[in-house]
Amino acid sequence: MDAPVKDKCDKCDKKASFHSVEIVKGQKTEINLCEVHAAQESKVAKAVHTPINELLSSFVKAQSGQPVTEEALCGECGQTFSQFRETSLMGCPSCYAAFEEKLTPMLERIHEGGTHHLGKIPKRSGVAEQKQAALLRMRKQLAEAVAAENFELAARLRDEVRRFEEQTT
Amino acid sequence: MTLPRITEHAGEWLRGAGPNSEIVISSRVRLARNLAGFPFVNRASLRQRQEVRDRCHERIMDSRVRLGALWVDLAESTDLDRMLLVERHLISRQHAQAGPDLPRAVAIGEDETFAIMVNEEDHLRIQVLRSGMQMAEAFEQINRLDDLVEEKLDFAYTRRFGYLTACPTNVGTGIRVSVMLHLPALKLTGEIDKVKRAARDMHLAVRGLFGEGSDALGDLYQVSNQTTLGRGESEILNDFQSTVVPQIISYEQQARQALARQRSAQLDDKIWRAWAVLSNARVIGTEEVMGLLSHLRLGVNLGRIDMVDIRTINELFLLTQPAHLQKLTGREMDPAARREARAELIRRRLGAVR
Predict the structure, then answer these.
(1) Is B230 close to A146, i.e. CB distance below 8 A?
(2) Which of B92, B226, B238, B295 is deepest in the core (most CB within 10 A)?
């Protein structure tokens, strides 16, 4: 099953657009923030609209007096756009959605103006797009649990992933 | 892991047959695919890479693809075996040379017409390789393979971007169609650079024998499409096989005719010197062999020498490579010993040693 995602920001009543689960010493904490609070917590989510980002960075600058990076970030794998620039490689399938805006002009240059897929569609439409992202998120938590040597949690997450995959295929 | 079966003969793609085989050595199609729900190889943890490898092993060898297929765990293979697979174009250099900590593998079809690399730049790189100009046949075969694998594995795919790949240069169809062309006349007349520039203007890549960053040894060039997004597979394929390749073939044919007409003595000199050296040398390096085989092949195709057939020449292109040479003689050799063994192998195959 999809983990229930909270709609509201933890700090105010606005719609939450930043969701993450942090694991510290085996303790799992869910974080749901609106765009403004995500920026304040320096958890700037995906660059959705440039104007909002500009607004945010000037807002945060005014608050903290520190220079702020307007770095686009993939919420699933944590890869930044400048890491992509260095390696020319995306971190995970969700990077495409996360970097969509910056990527589009690049794709146009690479693919003779092509920006949208016009080819084969898998017969079995496979795992739906939002479920693909959920699966990536679960696997990231699993990898973190393994890295933190929290094997109890890891085993539980592994079972969750397996159940999730069985349900979707 | 040893690969005894596959050294004794050349793969299907070196038969020297198939349409336009005097210029088109082989046709290749490859598809880039990634598993849904996993980070790409470059960002995956060791465990995730192992999981991808194991899952692909289990599912591919459980599908109808498995029939006659050989699964090779590359992290556990010897350097020599990996080099052998590179020489046979069954894995890329990058795949062969990755560190010992990258779990990776390849599934190879019985007749070597297909190979599926696991954990290269993408989780899966499926390729089909056929002799001569057989683009449509290669595409049909790979499309079937893709369907069979897809029955067992979920691929990362979105409606907008198509098949998602680690590098955005492959996103969309994930398809790369390519031909390996023998272009000795364009090289001799110096027109090859013009062809390369024209190809680049048409958004095609021109590379050497072993792909990216390799030299065009033996006047062998790989030409491939670059665009994978915003066009359908059949459109990409049709452009390539009915416009691009025929054009390059006709340039090479014109250059061959011009050479035969205007510089026939110089042409024959190249061909017969190649024969003389190859059938008499006692010590010889790969690079020199490739250059001479190229001229000999041109001579046979133009009917100016009949001491040897095309199939033998095609095989020698492969069997004189370092890994093949060592496999054939059954021992590891340093470069000096290889140069001697290479010369002897060539003389034997050309009938100069009884």
Answers:
(1) no
(2) B295
- Give the angle A119-A125-A129 at the CA atoms, nearest 5°: 95
The pLDDT of B302-317, averaged and rounded, is 93
Beta-carbon count within 10 A of B51 CB? 18
Give the residue numbers spanning the domain of A5.
1-47
| pLDDT of residue A5 exceeding 70 | no
Residues of chain B in contact with residue A132, where contact means CB-CB under 8 angstroms, are 36-37, 156
Higher pLDDT, B254 or A6: B254
Q: How confident is the model over A51-81, as pLDDT tens digits? A: 444 544 555 455 554 444 567 889 889 999 9
Q: Distance between CA B18 and CA B207 in Å, rounded? A: 22
ipTM of the complex: 0.87
Closest by Cα among A44, A37, A35, A29 to A11: A37
Phi-psi sector, A75: left (phi>0), alpha (psi -120 to 50), beta: alpha
Average pLDDT over residues A26-52: 58
Percent of chain A with pLDDT over 90: 28
Nearest residue of chain B to residue A105 (CA atoms): B168
Decide: B30 and B142 in contact? Cβ < 8 Å: yes
* Among B213, B146, B133, residue whose Cα is nearest residue B174: B146
Q: Does A26 touch chain B (CB under 8 A)?
A: no
Q: Which two tokens stand for residue B26?
A: 């082989």
- Mark whether A16 and A1 lie in a shared domain: yes
- B5-256: CATH superfamily: Glutamine synthetase/guanido kinase, catalytic domain (3.30.590.10)
Question: What confidence score (pLDDT) does residue B213 get?
Answer: 60
pLDDT in tens, B174-198: 999 999 999 999 999 999 999 998 8
CB-based contact A136 B37, cutoff 8 Å: yes
> In terms of domains, do A1 and A39 share one?
yes
Burial string for B291-330 (b: 16+ CB within 10 Å, else e) reads bbbbbbbbbbbbeebeebebebbbbbbbbbbbbbbbbeee
Helix (H) / strand (E) element for B171: namely none
Strand-by-strand arrangement of the B175-182 sheet: B70-73, B105-108, B114-118, B124-131, B24-33, B175-182, B220-225, B204-207
Using a CB-CB distance cutoff of 8 angstroms, which residues of chain A are in contact with residue B227? 110-112, 114
> What is the separation, in whole angstroms, between the first and last Cα of chain A?
13
Q: Can you give the pTM of this predicted structure?
A: 0.81
Tell me the pLDDT tens digit for each residue of B19-32: 789 999 999 999 99
Residue B2 in this model has a pLDDT that exceeds 50: no
CA distance B314 to B208: 16
CA nearest B45 in A: which residue? A143
Q: Is the per-residue pLDDT at B151 higher than 70?
A: yes
Count CB-CB contacts under 10 A for residue B349.
18
**Residue after which a domain boundary falls, among A97, A115, A133:** A115
Q: Which residue has the tokens 């695919």?
A: B33
